[in-house]
Amino acid sequence: MSFQIANAQVFKFETPKKNEGIQVRTLPNGNKISNWKKVIEKKSKKPSSNDLIADALFVDFGKINLNSSKSITIKCIAGIESEDIELFYIGDTDLFSIDIGDDQNFWQTNDSTVFHQSPLEDISIKIRPKPIKKGTNQAYMAFRIDKRLVRIAMKSNVTEEVTFHQDTVSINLGLVEADSIGFTDYTFFDLQELPLNFEYSGDANAFQFMVDGDSILADSISQVIPNSDTLTLSIAPIADKLGDHYGAVKLENNYLQQEITITSRVEKVRGEIFWADTNHLERNIEYLETTLYSPQDTLYAQLSLYNDSDYDTLFDISHYININTDDWLDYSLPVTQMLPRSITMIQVPFYPNKKSNLDNDLNATIDILILKDSSTNTQKVNYKPVEKLREELKTNFPSSLTFTSKKDTLEIRIPYLNTGKNAVYPTVKTFMDEIELPSAIQVYYGTPRIKSWRKGYISIYMTPYDSINFHKEKTQTLKYKVYDEVVEADIHIKQKPLSAIIKDYTQEIILGIISVTLLILLIFSPKIYKYGKREYANYLIKANLKKDIFSINRTIGIIQDTSIQSALEQDLNKKKEELSNIT
Q1: 3-class SS at 549?
Q2: So where does this one cross the membrane (predicted)?
Q3: What is the mean pLDDT of the chain?
Q4: Are 84 and 24 within 8 A, CB to CB?
Q5: What are the pLDDT digits (tens) for 82-94?
Q6: Helix H segments across 198-342?
Q7: Residue 258 vs residue 3, higher pLDDT
Q8: Could you give the dihedral angle defined by the CA atoms of residues 330, 336, 338 and 343, in that order, rounded to the nearest 10 degrees?
Q9: Are 379 and 282 contacting, i.e. CB atoms less than 8 angstroms apart?
Q10: First vs last Cα of the chain: how many Å apart?
Q11: Which of these, 90, 226, 487, 575, has the minimum number of CB atoms within 10 Å of its CB?
């Protein structure tokens, strides 16, 4: 028993509407009949379904004129696996366009006849007849998936064909200057998506061309395919030689032959660029710096060249030199804007290759070969990632620190350079050795996240232990070895002067004096005590009376009964009299 793997891809056609004038029939088992092209038109029948698993499809587009926009769509239903589908196409292939997915006019615009279908993604295939040639036109196509074929025959009856204009076009680009060159566009219409042969004749290196925005070589015959029904030819003069220039472009296929003549007159050209010192070319190269201190640093070689032109020039130095150097050192060759009739210092940057190990010191030799005479300029350069860190450390590490309180916390910042491609939280012991720590001070470290190739800082935080007695002055030493450099600071522990302590507790002292004074007055002055007691009692009585008066007034305003209001007013007057009698 044998098994055959069946493809999940299925082709289905969309049934045209009746008013479209398109007839669709199928040839039973036509995808397996060898002479299907001969019998499909006569033996095809009305389709029982829109599947093309075994049956071949026959499409008769009927009458086609310039206003027709007929088309039929065939869906390739995707399976769960990707598939490459090959297209075979014969017959009047110029007279039918095939759009596959987003590729318009697939047969003409693609070098390959194979298209790819992704899993679970259906593809729409649209077939369009074109009114290029009067009469009956026929074409045949087949889609192959592995060993399985899906066949389609097409027929159209063109009653009115498109007229291709074949007038000779003359383009005069006028006076040309080297600094004012631009493209002139000429657009051709109604080309029916047909390929055209592009052929140039005339003065060499006098013009440059683009077709629909893409450059095209003028020294050979090329094939161009119009974008939809139009083609835009862009022409620009080349201002290398003074004088008049002539050329001609021929665009042709089986249905069209179009000629374009081109003229221009060049008035100004650019001069050459040469080395400033023409006797000793290697002397035109010098270096401003020869040492790199971090992966982000760049040093420059300055090259002196003269622009012998009346115009600014965008200059590529790579045509003048070759550079050889060590693997850890990279460079780039810039394109530089050169001023007219002057010497320009072109800077070539050199920088560390970040794929290399940049943890330690490195040395390199730069050899710049001048192509004009093969002379060489040689320069030695260095990479020292620790040197600047060491200088900063020596400059910023304090010579002494003073603690006057247990609340004091002081910080020392140590520079750190991350020479790797990943962000890190530095481990202190990998580059710092604790030689001597003060016994009276608690030391701990802050290690922030430092980005790749960047410099950051590790913090040394210091605060006195709670058990330290500040009444007795002490001096101890903080000493580290960082980047092979020994740094130290004297740590002083001493109490603040008495005046400073008094200043810190001024508010507390004043409040204490006031409290003691009041206490003395209360104990040793009975009259003051009695007077104060009586005044306090009067204060409480007045407060209660005022509260009652307020409540009565509010009640009178709320109650509508006149008899109750009268009683409340009598009570109110009584309370007011009592309040006025209190002294």
Answers
A1: helix
A2: 505-524
A3: 86
A4: no
A5: 889 999 999 998 8
A6: none
A7: 258
A8: -10
A9: no
A10: 127
A11: 90
Q: Is the pLDDT of residue 576 over 90?
A: no
Tokens describing residue 231? 């083609």
Q: Report whether pLDDT(504) > 60.
A: no
More confident call, 392 vs 254: 392
The yes-or-no verdict on residue 500 having pLDDT over 60 is no
Write out the two tokens for 139: 């074409």
pLDDT at position 502: 57
Tens of pLDDT, residues 179-238: 778 898 888 887 888 888 999 998 988 999 998 888 888 888 888 887 677 888 899 999
The percentage of residues in the chain with a pLDDT greater than 70, rounded to a whole number, is 91
- Cβ neighbour number for residue 139 with a 10 Å cutoff: 21
Report d(CA 475, CA 470) in Å as an integer.
12
Contact yes or no for 138/103 (Cβ under 8 A): no
All structural domains of the chain: 10-158 (2.60.40), 169-268 (2.60.40.2040), 273-383 (2.60.40), 397-493 (2.60.40), 511-583 (no CATH)
**403-417, 499-513, 529-543: which has the minimum mean pLDDT?**
499-513
Concatenating the DSSP letter of every residue in 440-456 gives TEEEEEE---B-TT-EE
Q: Name the residue type at position 134.
A: K
Helix, strand, coil percentages in the chain from 3-state DSSP, rounded to 5: 20, 45, 35
Q: In angstroms, how far is CA 395 from the centroid of its own chain?
A: 40
Q: How far is CA 520 from CA 186, 205, 254, 516, 534, in A?
A: 111, 114, 126, 6, 20
User: By three-state DSSP, how is residue 236 classified?
Assistant: strand
Are the CB atoms for 118 and 78 separated by under 8 Å? yes
Tell me the HSE value of 37 on the side-chain side, using a 13 A CA sphere. Answer: 8
List all residues 6 or more positions away from 510 whose beta carbon is below 8 Å from its beta carbon. none
Q: Residue 197: what are its φ and ψ, rounded to 5°?
A: -85, 130
pLDDT of residue 515: 74
Nearest to 233 by CA among 266, 265, 258, 264: 258
Measure the CA–CA gap between 157 and 153, rounded to whole angstroms.
14
Q: If you count them, how many residues does the chain have?
A: 583
| 75, 122, 144 from 10: Cα distances, Å | 8, 10, 12
Question: Rounded to an integer, what distance in angstroms lies between the CA atom of residue 81 and that of residue 86?
Answer: 16
For residues 320 and 402, give the distance between their C-alpha atoms in angstroms, rounded to a whole number: 63
3-state secondary structure of 175: strand
pLDDT in tens, 73-117: 999 988 888 889 999 999 998 899 999 998 888 988 888 899 998
User: pTM for the full model?
Assistant: 0.46
pLDDT of 565 > 80? The answer is: no
Asked whether the beta carbons of 414 and 434 are under 8 A apart, the reply is no
Question: Nearest 5°: phi and psi at 534?
Answer: -65, -45
Backbone angles phi, psi at 110, to 5 degrees: -110, 140
Q: Encoding tokens for residue 158? A: 């063109």
User: What token pair was written down for 129?
Assistant: 């007849």
